[in-house]
């Protein structure tokens, strides 16, 4: 089973240290939540892992391969193996749902066939199976732009699944969703983690959600890893030590407004 190793990883934007000397080892099959205030470095960390951006210092390796040194075809293959789910879904609104899912197979095709959206029957069956896992088959021929935010996020997860990834990253996947849809998305990620034995790293802005779904939590502040351990060890007292009393209050306010167990919806 392949482990993800992060060693002395930093990313500087001018004088700002978005990620500052992060060192982590993520064992295969873990469900890891990354929490922190806005600007803590969570999104930058995931983008460094996926190689959407390059580090200033340090390295990322997976299964013994130094990801930070990959180029060309090898880098494209890594981005296929390391699926990324974004807060804003990144679907093509004018295309139907199943075609959006099939876009996850583009890395397996030549430029000509991918541009022409030529996919095999086997790939279409794979896309339908992924949609079925996320209860989205009834919407397969519907334009993606007509779906709710929660439905679009589940389509984005299905698209990630058809990449046959070895690791899955999710950057604030429930930040703009109402509690019901947030629950569906988090439960879908947990099911994928458990059934597929797939390593999942998810950035979250709510403490209770991280505690409920993630076996391990990493807390970041100003680009640094301030806590890394089992969810049950991240008590309110520990959060207060890391972020201060105001920080704990911020997390509690976030939980009140967007907790997956809440009743009042937020803006989609």
From TrEMBL:
KW Nucleotide-binding (keyword) present: yes
Taxonomy, superkingdom: Bacteria
Any one GO MF annotation of this record: ATP binding
Keywords: ATP-binding, Cell membrane, Membrane, Nucleotide-binding, Translocase, Transport
CDD domains named among the record's database cross-references: ABC_PhnC_transporter (cd03256)
Similarity annotation: Belongs to the ABC transporter superfamily.
Full protein name: Phosphonate ABC transporter ATP-binding protein
Species annotation: Maritalea mediterranea
Taxonomic classification: Bacteria, Pseudomonadati, Pseudomonadota, Alphaproteobacteria, Hyphomicrobiales
Gene: phnC
């Amino acid at each position: 089973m392949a482990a993800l190793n992060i060693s002395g990883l930093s990313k500087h934007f001018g004088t700002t240290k978005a990620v500052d000397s992060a060192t982590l080892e993520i064992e295969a099959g873990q469900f890891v939540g990354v929490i922190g205030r806005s600007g803590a470095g969570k999104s930058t960390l995931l983008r460094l892992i996926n190689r959407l951006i390059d580090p200033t210092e340090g390295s990322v390796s997976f299964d013994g391969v130094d990801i930070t040194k990959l180029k060309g075809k090898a880098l494209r293959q890594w981005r296929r193996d390391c699926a990324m789910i974004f807060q804003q879904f990144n679907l093509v609104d004018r295309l139907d749902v199943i075609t959006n899912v099939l876009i996850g197979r583009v890395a397996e095709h030549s430029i000509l066939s991918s541009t022409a959206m030529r996919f095999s029957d086997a790939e279409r069956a794979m896309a339908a199976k992924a949609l079925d896992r996320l209860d989205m088959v009834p919407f397969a021929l519907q334009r993606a732009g007509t779906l709710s935010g929660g439905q679009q996020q589940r389509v984005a997860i299905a698209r990630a699944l058809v990449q046959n990834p070895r690791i899955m990253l999710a950057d604030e996947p429930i930040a703009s969703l109402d509690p019901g849809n947030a629950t569906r998305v988090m439960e879908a990620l947990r099911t994928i983690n458990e059934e597929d034995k797939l390593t999942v790293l998810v950035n979250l802005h709510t403490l209770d959600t991280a505690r409920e779904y993630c076996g391990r939590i990493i807390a970041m502040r100003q680009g640094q890893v301030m806590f890394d351990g089992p969810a049950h060890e991240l008590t309110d007292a520990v959060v207060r030590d890391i972020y201060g009393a105001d920080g704990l209050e911020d997390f509690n306010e976030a939980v009140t407004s967007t907790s997956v167990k809440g009743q009042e919806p937020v803006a989609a």
